[in-house]
Amino acid sequence: MGEQINLFDNDSDTTLYKHKVTLEKIRNELIDFGLTKSQAKVFIYLGKYGSKTASEISKALQLPRTETYHLVNSLQNMGLVTAELSHPTKYTAMEMREAISTLVKQEQERIDNLATKEETLSEMWKQVPFFVVETDESKSEKMQLLHGAGPISNKIREMVNSSNEEFRIYGSIADLLRMYHSDVFDWLESVPTELKMVVTPYNKTPEFLSDLDAEKIRTLSSDSDNKCFIVNDKKEVLIFMRNANHPTRQTFAWWSDSETLVEMMNSLFDLSWEKGETLY
Fold first, then answer.
1. SS3 218
2. pLDDT > 90 fraction of the chain, expressed in percent and rounded
3. Sign of torsion over alpha carbons 175, 181, 182, 185
4. 159 to each of 211, 226, 231, 237, how far by Cα in Å?
5. Which residues are within 8 A (CB) of 142 and not within 5 positions of it... i.e. 6 or more apart?
6. What is the pLDDT of residues 93-150, one digit of tens each?
7. Domain end residue (candidates: 40, 74, 100)
8. How far apart are the C-alpha atoms of 29 and 141, rounded to whole Å?
9. Which of the pair, 27 or 225, is modelled with greater confidence?
10. 3-class DSSP state for residue 63?
11. Radius of gyration of the chain (CA)
12. pLDDT in the model for residue 163
């Protein structure tokens, strides 16, 4: 039997240490596709070392044997690992491209299944009466925490669709690029609102900005790159607590319709706009 090396070993003397960063990136991507950390490690190990028994996997990855059996069985159920009819049983990982395709199809099937329940669930909800008694006629301010690109993108789209006067964006090139790839600027073209943007820090004009009206953009060269926020019609604000330049992989934003907060962020935008320079 050849040398057994833990793929995720931190020892710089191991022959695979130079691939450690790449392997960790692959593992994190697999986690994004729905695998657990241990499932991802087992799949990568089988993919790079070929068919192995549960005992060999357990030893190489330093996992309890009972947990290892559970992991390979769960990977089989996901269609990512096959078991050979041998004794002891050997397990083989599916080729990476095929595995990703399988995971994508499974996720799409799950989403399609949820979509079919939308109308039924809505009708069931309507059948149950509301028991809330409104006693305070004053407006209650709301807030919402949003984690990840998907929920944040959905919230921005809601803000765009409700915008009638002015949509203000303050952020770095990386923030605006992320919005560009999320079709935010395409959404804005379909609503009767005026777009204004402050870009900071600013060094050179990226290609995607050249497609936009230069009069809608002001630039600052001296501010930091960790601030990003959106103000819509002076009625709601979305503040990125972790923007596109944050070292973590997940973005984190805070939405609110608080009049005080909206006024503060709107004033900050106005000051930045007045201080900024035109794009060209």
1. strand
2. 41
3. positive
4. 22, 22, 9, 9
5. 256, 257
6. 999 999 999 888 888 888 888 888 888 888 888 888 877 665 555 567 888 988 888 8
7. 100
8. 38
9. 27
10. coil
11. 25
12. 95
Token output for 209: 């900005």
Percent of the chain with pLDDT over 70: 86
N residues, the chain: 280
Strands 52-53 and 90-93 turn out to be antiparallel
Q: How far is CA 147 from the centre of its chain?
A: 8
For 76-135, give the secondary structure using H, E and C: HHCCCEEECCCCCCEEEECCHHHHHHHHHHHHHHHHHHHHHCHHHHHHHHHHCCCCCCCC
Whole domain around residue 22: which residue ranges? Answer: 17-100
What pLDDT sits at residue 57? 93
Q: Are residues 96 and 147 in the same domain?
A: no
pLDDT at 75: 93
| 2 found inside a domain | no
pTM equals 0.56
Over range 78-107, report the average pLDDT: 89
Cis amide prior to 88 (ω within 30 degrees): yes
The two three-digit tokens of residue 81, written as one number: 């690992």
Determine the pLDDT at residue 2.
44
Picking from 44, 67, 100, the residue at the C-terminal end of a domain is 100
DSSP 8-state secondary structure symbol assigned to residue 7: T
Rounded distance between C-alpha atoms, residue 58 and residue 65, angstroms: 6
CATH of residue 236: 3.30.870.10
* Tokens, residue 266: 């709107």
